[in-house]
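Fold this sequence, please.
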Amino acid sequence: MATSGQIYTVDTYPVSDSTVARRNDVLYGSCPNQRLEPRGLAVLPVVVRAEEQENVGLLRDISQTGMFFYCSLTPSVGSHIEVMIRPSLADPSLAVRCRCRVVRVEPSLPGAATGVAVAIQEYLGEEAQAECAVADSTVFSC
């Protein structure tokens, strides 16, 4: 039970006023959408390959031209990475692979994953177009 006069400290990370204002504008719909395509919510595992490292991440949202995910890598803005998504638990052989350019990196709190926004530049693999059509129609609703 708290007693009067105690001070509690909560660890926070510094955020500029302009960042807070932008987040609020996006949240409340007063900021124009800068994305080329609308994104759909999709919580799926991803495999991220960057600079000869491979990590597992968690997809947050996706469209045909971009996505946002969390992972333990911290790629630099402008770098190129490869992302693989398995949109179906029922069919693990189905995978969507794409080459992406990092457009934004959201720093994380200590011990948390880094947020990464990417622009999809190319779908990879022989059946990439068919895979993406199946993924779009069954999971992503973009």
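Confidence is low (pLDDT under 50) at residues 6-11, 134-142. Residues 36-140 form a domain with the Thrombin, subunit H fold (CATH 2.40.10.220).
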